[in-house]
């Protein structure tokens, strides 16, 4: 039976039958295994067109680059339900699937483009890209995405576009905007919050071409789209584009690769681009011929709205243990009096990060991790955010019996309670009580909870919104005029060299939630503000933030990165080992380092000593890592490719004793 490359097949494996992809034709001259006798294919899912060359190349590249097996990536890239369907069931499913929608019959756009949007789109049409759309929060980047998609769909009758966002919770709003513009049938979503049947339906629509537009999170980068012509990566700097388990791929980087391979234009959008993308989009200057990306700048907010004024509160001048400064409370109070909304941002969920005994010094350590368990008051539990270990809060100190154990520090739950107490005597303009709400991973656990909580904010049913970074990103809130970060200092002196970049991005994003509706501000005779409470008001990060000057911030960071030889001027990978003991983990890494000495490329790659991870033990597993770095991506890749078989071998040797697993993280996001 002749099977086309890319065809989905069912093949016997042991006594089971599993899904497979016919990868390529075998040739006896090139493939030493070609002589091996193989079992015949059990069935071809021929109701489906084969997976294209571009898709297979993408999967093969991702496997190679991120040091994983081809099968693992391919399988993860296909919808889970496809694994369980026979050819007959699949054919039946396809018949039920909505007929080709065509789509692209764009409803006429209601808004006139701003000059900056028009300029960005004009350049997008004539230049090859990849593009970095560097647009302030509220500059109308989404409108640029919508228009570039509209132009494409109108010009090419079958063309498809892929639009990615970093988080599931940003998909509903975006989906609504795309469906309003292009019709519900032309748009499908792909993200991990969907049921398996939903994912299969979306995948089939994309693969068959009926879906002209696929919206999704990082997994969508692997969607099979035979007529892909445009890829948008919104908030391209967002760390969620990097998968943090299994195959640790960067969906943003794969999007750029895929765009080049398939001749699709790529737009990376952000108000605070990753330093990698910023550097790659630098204009030519002097000797430097510039980066390979084209930068499209949209500095102004739509409707001539101003970016919020940034106010720094010097916490050194506040009474000790102040949580919310008087000035900030006054400012929030004024917003409440005018019927406007405020947002208070704290990147730590739960009630308090630690519960402690004042008598004997006991703390709520997790017995399985080198971390404290977080106190959640709502269900009176101590929960480990690393291994999940959960217990009821003890009535008294487990060590000394003291009944007075107390929370130390605060998370969003406690902040919400605290704000409730502070604003209890205050009345809204209509005389009713102040409404405080919280959005974080805990408040949104139930299906649909996040949507209803966001809807309440949009409907103006909330006066003060407390939350984690979940509320900082992307949302187009219309009535929030004040945003505050009450304790952002932690990231200023982190050992992770990307921490300041992440903090700056997060604060700019948070600021971007305030004053998005210029007409509303005018009508209210109000203005937007971003408040930051800090012990380091002189820090250059904050002075750049005050001026909304990402470029200055980036320049400073890049100067440090050049001097220290760090990304984007170097390329990194981590080798990590998990073991029963820290010694075993480090011994494995050191042996691995020695084994790499003889590999090609080794002389151009620096291997640092093995060190424990910041959270050294999780779920009774000791973790260690080794950083490897090179000025040449090719040299690093070459070393990794040669290393892989040695690592597998080493695991079976005495050096691998006690090692539970090892993994390679290429272009790691956190170190
Ligand atoms: P960004 O993604 O850059 O933060 P959005 O695309 O969400 O910004 O746009 C901010 C707001 O401005 C949205 O409410 C959007 O509908 C509106 N908007 C965008 N472009 C225009 C335009 N050309 N004219 C009027 N309003 C616009
Ligand atoms: Zn005690
Ligand atoms: Zn734990």
Tag the structure with descriptive keywords.
single chain; 671 residues; alpha/beta; GIY-YIG endonuclease; Rossmann fold; 5 domains; seven-stranded parallel sheet; six-stranded parallel sheet; 18 helices; globular; binds adenosine-5'-diphosphate; binds zinc ion
- On the 0 to 100 scale, the average pLDDT is 91
CATH-defined topology of the largest domain: Rossmann fold
Total count of helical runs of at least 4 residues: 18
What can be said about the biggest beta sheet?
A: 7 strands, parallel
CATH class of the largest domain equals Alpha Beta
State the fourth-level CATH superfamily of the largest domain. P-loop containing nucleotide triphosphate hydrolases
The spatial strand order of the largest sheet comes to 6-7-5-8-9-4-10
Return the domain count: 5
- Binned, the helix content reads 25-40%
What are the distinct ligands in this entry?
adenosine-5'-diphosphate, zinc ion
Beta-strand percentage range: 15-25%
Shape: globular
How far the N terminus sits from the C terminus, by CA atoms, comes to 50 Å
How many E strands? 26
Secondary-structure arrangement, i.e. CATH architecture of the largest domain: 3-Layer(aba) Sandwich
The helix-and-strand class reads: alpha/beta
Uncertain runs are none
Rg (CA only): 27 Å
């Amino acid at each position: 039976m002749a099977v086309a490359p890319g065809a989905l097949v069912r093949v016997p494996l042991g006594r089971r039958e599993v899904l497979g992809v016919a990868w390529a034709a075998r040739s006896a001259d090139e493939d030493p295994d070609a002589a091996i006798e193989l079992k015949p294919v059990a069935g071809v899912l021929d109701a489906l067109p084969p997976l294209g060359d571009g898709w297979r190349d993408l999967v093969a590249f991702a496997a190679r680059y991120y040091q994983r097996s081809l099968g693992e990536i391919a399988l993860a890239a296909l919808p889970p339900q496809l694994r369980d369907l026979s050819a007959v069931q699949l054919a039946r499913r396809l018949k039920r699937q909505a007929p080709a929608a065509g789509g692209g019959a764009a409803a006429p756009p209601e808004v006139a483009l701003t000059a900056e949007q028009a300029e960005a789109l004009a350049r997008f049409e004539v230049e090859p890209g990849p593009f970095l759309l560097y647009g302030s929060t509220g500059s109308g980047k989404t409108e640029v995405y919508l228009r570039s998609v509209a132009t494409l769909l109108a010009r090419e009758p079958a063309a498809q576009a892929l639009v990615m966002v970093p988080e599931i919770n940003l998909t509903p709003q975006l989906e609504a905007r795309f469906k309003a513009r292009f019709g519900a049938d032309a748009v499908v979503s792909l993200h991990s919050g969907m049921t398996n049947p939903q994912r299969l339906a979306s995948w089939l629509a994309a693969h068959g071409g009926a879906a002209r537009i696929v919206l999704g999170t990082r997994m969508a980068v692997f969607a099979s789209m035979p007529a892909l012509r445009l890829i948008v990566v919104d908030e391209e700097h967002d760390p969620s584009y990097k998968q943090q388990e299994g195959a640790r791929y960067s969906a943003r980087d794969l999007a750029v690769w895929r765009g080049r391979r398939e001749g699709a234009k790529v737009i990376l959008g952000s108000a605070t681009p990753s330093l990698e993308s910023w550097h790659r989009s630098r204009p030519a200057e002097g000797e430097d011929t510039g980066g390979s990306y084209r930068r499209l700048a949209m500095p102004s907010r739509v409707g001539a709205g101003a970016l919020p004024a940034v106010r720094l509160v010097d916490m050194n001048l506040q009474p000790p243990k102040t949580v919310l400064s008087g000035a900030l409370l006054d400012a929030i109070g004024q917003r409440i009096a005018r019927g406007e909304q405020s947002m208070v941002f704290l990147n730590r969920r739960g009630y308090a990060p630690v519960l402690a005994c004042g008598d004997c010094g006991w703390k709520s350590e997790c017995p399985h991790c080198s971390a404290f368990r977080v106190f959640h008051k709502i269900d009176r539990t101590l929960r480990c955010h690393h291994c999940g270990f959960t217990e009821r809060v003890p009535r008294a100190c487990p060590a000394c019996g003291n009944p007075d154990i107390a929370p130390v520090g605060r998370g969003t739950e406690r902040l919400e309670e605290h704000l409730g107490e502070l604003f209890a005597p205050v009345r809204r303009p209509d005389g009713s009580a102040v409404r405080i709400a919280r959005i974080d991973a805990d408040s949104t656990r139930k299906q649909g909870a996040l949507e209803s909580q966001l809807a309440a904010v949009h409907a103006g049913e909330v006066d003060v919104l407390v939350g984690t970074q979940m509320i900082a990103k992307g949302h187009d809130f219309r009535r929030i005029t004040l945003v505050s970060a009450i304790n952002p200092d932690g990231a200023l002196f982190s050992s992770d060299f990307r921490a300041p970049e992440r903090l700056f991005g997060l604060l700019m994003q948070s600021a971007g939630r305030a004053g998005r509706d210029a007409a509303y501000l005018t009508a209210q005779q109000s203005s937007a503000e971003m408040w930051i409470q800090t012990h380091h008001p002189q820090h250059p990060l904050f002075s750049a933030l005050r001026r909304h000057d990402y470029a200055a911030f980036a320049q400073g960071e890049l100067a440090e990165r050049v001097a220290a030889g760090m990304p984007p001027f170097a390329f990194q990978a981590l080798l990590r080992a998990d073991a029963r003991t820290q010694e075993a983990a480090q011994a494995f890494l050191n042996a691995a380092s020695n084994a790499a000495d003889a590999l090609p490329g080794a002389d151009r790659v620096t291997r640092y000593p093995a060190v424990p991870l910041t959270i050294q033990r999780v779920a009774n597993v000791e973790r260690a890592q080794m950083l490897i770095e090179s000025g040449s991506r090719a040299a690093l890749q070459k070393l990794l490719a040669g290393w892989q078989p040695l690592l597998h071998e080493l695991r079976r040797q005495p050096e691998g004793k006690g090692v539970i697993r090892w993994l390679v993280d290429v272009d790691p996001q956190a170190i």
